[in-house]
Structures are given as C-alpha cells and as structure tokens.
Amino acid sequence: xxxxxxLNEPTGPDGLRTLTDELRAxxxxxxxxxxxxxxxxxxxxxxxxxxxxxxxxIELGTxxxxxxxxxxxxxxQQARTTxxxxxxxxxxxxIGLSHRIVIENMFGYDFERPARHMREYLSVLNPLLDxxxxxxxxxxxxxxxxxxxxxxxxxxxxxxxxxxxMLKLAGSASDGTVLWMTGPATIREHIAPIIxxxxxxxxxxxxxxxxxxxxxxxxxxxxxxxxxxKTFVMYDQLPSYRAMMDREGAQGPADLAIIGSEEYVTxxxxxxxxAGATEFVAAMFxxxxxxxRTRAVLTGLAD
Length: 303
What we know:
Order of helices and strands: EHEHEEHEHHEEEHEHEHHHEHEH
Number of helices: 12
CATH topology of the largest domain: TIM Barrel
Mean pLDDT: 96
Radius of gyration: 19 Å
Shape: globular
Low-confidence stretches: none
Oligomer: single chain
Strand content: 15-25%
Structural class: alpha/beta
CATH class of the largest domain: Alpha Beta
CATH architecture of the largest domain: Alpha-Beta Barrel
C-alpha cells in the first residue's frame, strides 16, 4: 500500500527549515509520499521546491493549489520548475477549484460554471506540463505559448474532484484525483466508479485516487474525536465537503477521522483501499505518544 503524510503548514521565520526537517523525517520513516496544502500561508510549490531539493527519494505533491488565481501557463511553469528542483519523477501537481467564498469573496474572480473553467484550464495546462506548446482560446482561458523549463519528463497532475462533472473531467483529462473529507463508502459508490469509467472511455491509464483523512492511534478516542471536530470544523461549512459527508452519512469531520487502536486504524485504512483508493495520505492532528503510535502504524503499512 502507498501511504503518505500531509505536511504541516510552515510558520515563523524558520518555517522552510522546519518543513525540510519534517519532510526528511517522513522520508527516513518510510512514508511513500508527502503532500502540502496551499491555503494562505507559504506558496506550496515554492516550499516543496526548497524542501524537496534537500531531501531525496520521497514523492512530493500539492493538495491542492487553486487554479483561478494563476493562469495555467504560470501554473505549468512553476510546477515544472518545482519538478526540476526536486528531480525527475518525484513531483505531482495537485490542483483544484477551491470554493466560491474564497474565489469570489477573497480573490474577486467569477466562480460561475466551474467545470467549464477547469476543462479549459486543463486544455492549456496539460500540454505545457507535457513539454509541448499550446494554442488555445476559450471562454475563460486563452494561451499561445511554450515553456523552456528543461524537465526530463512530464509533470503529472491530479484534480481535486467530488461532483460527477469534475470526476469525469479528472478521469478523462488528468492522472486522477486527490480527495479530502471523503470516506470509503463514498469512494466505493461514487468516486471510483465515475472516475474509472471516464478514464477508460478516454483510453487513459487507470486513475490515481489519493484519499486523505485525519488519523490518530489513541486509547482516548473521545478526546481525539473532540479535537478532530474542533480542528477540522471549517470543512463542515464548505458545501462541497458537506456533500461528501452527507453521502458518507457523517454528521461532521470527526466521523470521517480514523481514530482508535492500532488494529482499528489499520482495518479502516484497508477499507479505504478496498473501496478503490490507490493511495492514502494521513493528516496528523495530535502530538506526543499518540502521534508516535500513529506514525508507526502508517509506516508499517507503507510499501
């Protein structure tokens, strides 16, 4: 099983050094991959280029970079530069729409018809990630350009997708999807069937389905659930994630968090893979001895 870890957002003046240390620890422990979210802190692509250039081996990915604030040509250029910094075959670009409240209220972009936006975005991004020139004119994106970043190969791209339209697009025009707050029943009954069928119809390889969930091995389940509910409360307020919780029959984020004994956590992660996930990325939200126990279980499952 491929097991990854979600890196902490760097903070403070030594944030990039701390991120590098955290990445090195993950590589030394045997995690297959490490992923960094792009929210309102450091730029995830830049941070992974810095840290990844100093820590060899482990796969790196963004989960995820919003598309609206960056032209796809700019996204491709920065992604290829990051891939160049860390070495061939190590970097995966995870992108997503973000949310209406972020894109419209904070950045001032029009969030209407997001599937059209992403379809046109990928029409420009994909050729550039492949090292090819692009000429495209759409309703939301126009590009006539080529990049000269000297990559040895293409940069794979994963699309954060939860609704049917985005899942079909992810299957037909990307390397797969990266999920958050999406449980095994939803993967089995909704995510995997749609994205797999779309990839097959487009004659593309079987898609990657990267599932990320909060995880904690602990004897105090109630306390950990309470902490998970507080730590991840914002996702209960975002419509796209709330829809995934409703599909799963979850009252809130704490119901999706994998919390319990070593045996219980192992069983639940196996369930995620059986549902159709190809990779699991753990979001750690506790410290101390529970964190050490959790990491031991996760690395024990890693390839």
